[in-house]
Amino acid sequence: MSRSNVNYSGIDFKNPVVLASGTCGFGNVLDEIFPIEKLGGISSKGITLKERAGNTGIRIWETSSGLMNSVGLENPSVDGFIDKYLDFINNKDLVNIVNLSGHSVDDYLKGIEKLNHQEVDIVELNISCPNVKEGGMNFGIKTEVARNLVRQVRSICDHKLVIKLSPNAEDIVELAKMCEEEGADGVSLVNTFLAMAIDIRKKKPVFDNVYAGLSGPAIKPIALRMVHQVSKAVDIPVMGMGGISTWEDAIEFLMAGAKVLQIGTATFKNPKIALDIIDGIEKYLEDNNIDSVEDIIGII
Fold this sequence. Notes:
This protein is of the alpha/beta class. It has 9 helices and 16 strands. It starts with 5 loop residues before the first strand and ends in a 13-residue tail after the last helix. 47% of the residues are buried.
């Protein structure tokens, strides 16, 4: 067992580094660039009950210190994922995290029922989706709206259940506490921040949906603060993400309380960045005579 091994809610990760949902597809493309089995795990592209084509117009927009996206959950559906990609991931020696999204409670429940029949390590429930039956407000904004969803999903989910939290929530700490109360096995945070870009030449928003999700180094200090606050408020383990670009960033998130880290936007700049971060964490532990990464988790 290496110094970097961590146990997250009963699941062993060979190291705490996971590729974040929406930034690595289903791992098959990146596996052609480097052996993804070196990772602790992978969180799949968000899947929904039915296949989605995604948003129209521009989908990606660079900022001075990050990336904005409005992809719109383009995906092959839960069934399409199971048919085309699940065996590939399960044949790799890493933790398989399946990210599930939906636009109604019924969508989520039907998706969970399908995944219950499959070999999956963790279901990561993305509650940052607009609830079409409640006027478009995201499930993850108001704690009590999210509670109804988490409670119903938990009641039927046979797998480990991690709730992915939005930084746009009214109170992310209360949201995390609710997830623990309703039986979640962990939380992951943060998802992207709601942001905007304007094309001054065309005199209109860059994105057809007007607003988009901001990720990358720009959000790191805020994400780090939220991870620290949440990890101090709940006993269930935290997956931390938000602008992690270097091994030093990773150490900060671990010290702030994250037990597992998700690396996303940085992979677009360097597809192998996760390997550099894994090596950096291991060297830091060796250089500081730390026997286990668990010894620094949550020390701040």
